[in-house]
Amino acid sequence: MSYAVRIPSLLVAVMVLVASFWVPVSVVAADGPSASFEKDVTTVTRGDEVEIQVSHSESGTLHIGGDDYGYHLTVELTGSGTTTVTIDTYNSTANNASDYISGGGAKNLTTASLDEPIEPSTYLMNVTIGGVERAIGQLKVTPRGNTSAETHVAPASLNDSDDGISADSLPGSMTKRQMVAKGDYAVIKLNESGLESALKPDDISGGPTANGIKVSMNQLEVRPNHEQETFLATPENGATVVEDLENDLIYVVWDTSDLPLEGDTEEYEVTVTLEGENNSLVEEDTITARSRVELVEPTISIDVHNETTYPWEALQVNVTGETTIAPNSVLEVRARAPGQPFLKLVPVTVSKNGTLSKNLTFAPEDRGLSFPLWIRGDYYDLRDQTETKLELLESDAGMRFVDQETDGTYVTVSEVTLSVGGFVRVETADEEPLGTSAYLPPGTHENVIVEFDRRQLADGELLAVAHTDQNRDENFSVSDDPPYRTNGTNGSIVADDAMVRLEPDAKTPTPNPTTATSTEEAAEQVTATATATPYPVTERTPLEPSGSATNTGIPLSPGLVVVALVVTGLLARRRQ
């Protein structure tokens, strides 16, 4: 074999030999002491707590800082595993390191104690085992940022749940808004920075016990001969502190029930102050955040659509309104018929923009009722602001048309009762229209004159028909104003007929004015008229609404309605 051929074989042999020696060396190194940090760089805001996790195969020592940093802390790591060391940077001025450090074994500060919380900087961290450095990392202490504040509002019912007020329930209940109705909760949302260790939720009134953290509600407008009123955020003043430190949030929840309100509006400013004398983070009193609260009276205004519901309309009432009460507040729409077992209770929730809307549906048997409707709140007296009267009208009509003499240009209907107003139309036996009365308001009318559009030229039997004013324009229209009927859409038309003879010298009687205008009075007069006159009356029963607004008729109850007598074949022919 040639020399050129043997050289590659020799190189291969050398490489195999080297590899055989290298592998055992690596195994020996892996079996030695080891350590590592969970994070290469651990960051904390000055004043907050920080957790440092160290994994170590044997006992060792955690070093933070050094002489060059003016801060050198050592913490013993015992045995093997993972050790979590927690440092409270706000209280790092303590003489004994164990007072602000937990986790690990013995703790020692080899440099002098700090006069102020540990300064913002990047501190070297390492782990030594047997005096040999086995891991390296950094602790980065960042300066405190600015604490910001926002005003929100939450319903007065916020504290009603068994769990009370919590960081979980607050965000979904509150709405960002400076206007707060007296009795609701003003929620001051604080985006805190570096306060989690210093904050004591049960005491944010300033002073040594509160670590100098003070939250106060300050009156802005000082009236003549009055002193500015300031309220500390204490339980006695209605304040509750809720922490959400995982998200760097603090909520100051303030019950405004006992806050003074002069006039319609009272302006307050909520301030978060760090007192330099009692807080290590500042040298002098410093306001770190502020936000406004506009305290107002709990007011509400409503608009009731279909406040008066006519017989041909569906039995639905829409209630809308605006209120200063907090969004997400649950109020109650109440409707009650006095003297009758009738009470409707419907909850309504205030929307995010301070409005409310609710549809109420009534039953057919509720027709004919007149009753109050108002808004009720568990924490507010709203009835005086919202009470309104609802009328669910039913359709009752009665008529008396007697034989008479006329000069051919008019007839007189002796008596007409219309529960919701309308007209009287007169026709010939051949259903040819002769004329229509003027609009008749709800109530009973006597001697109603119907002038003819054309002269009647011969004696004959005429028919008077009661019509509604369904479009409520007080102008008669055949297509828009169908006849009154006695039993819904399939009932008989309310009408009466009379024999009319021509007499050139006949005198027009004087009509009497309307004797009733309210629906209740009209219904009473229908009853009285039915008793005193010879035309038939049926007992009152509930009505169902008409399906349309055409000339097919309107829904009527048979109660107190006078049915037209068909003394001749005239009305029978109309039905056909």
UniProtKB/TrEMBL annotation:
Pfam families: DUF7282 (PF23951), DUF7827 (PF25162). Residues 29-107 form the DUF7827 domain. Residues 398-500 form the DUF7282 domain. Residues 507-533 have a biased composition (Low complexity). InterPro entries: DUF7827 (IPR057149), Slg1/2_DUF7282 (IPR055706). Residues 504-555 are annotated as: Disordered. This is PGF-CTERM sorting domain-containing protein.
